[in-house]
Design goal:
By secondary structure, the protein is mainly α. It has a domain of 32 residues. The chain is built from four helices and no strands. Helix 2 packs parallel to helix 4 and helix 3 packs antiparallel against helix 4.
Length: 102
């Protein structure tokens, strides 16, 4: 249905098209879902990174968190942004304490 609205822009009574609003709302929802999923995956990676000798996974966690923060900045609900920032702070703290970030 959304594909039809994007390819066939319907006009309302004022003559303006409605599909940019629908596409914008869908993109915000998609960004929010992606941010939360990325944050949860990074949280699992961070748990493995807390184990000694597996601290290298924290670098992958930080890279994923940066992507999640970018996606989490666009939606109105900032739950994905909060998850990613919290995971990134814990990962940076663990790297700092372990000597991985000097």
């Amino acid at each position: 249905m959304a594909f039809y609205l994007v390819t066939n822009p319907a006009k309302n009574s004022t003559g303006s098209s409605r599909h940019p609003v629908i596409v914008h709302a869908v993109m915000k929802t998609l960004c929010q879902i992606l941010s939360v999923v990325i944050g949860l995956v990074c949280a699992v990676l961070m748990i493995f990174g807390i184990i000694p000798l597996l601290g290298w996974t924290l670098w992958a966690t930080l890279g994923g968190c940066v992507v999640g923060i970018i996606f989490g900045a666009f939606p109105e609900r900032k739950i994905g942004l909060i998850i990613n920032v919290a995971v990134a702070v814990v990962a940076i703290l663990r790297l700092f304490l372990g000597g991985g970030v000097v």
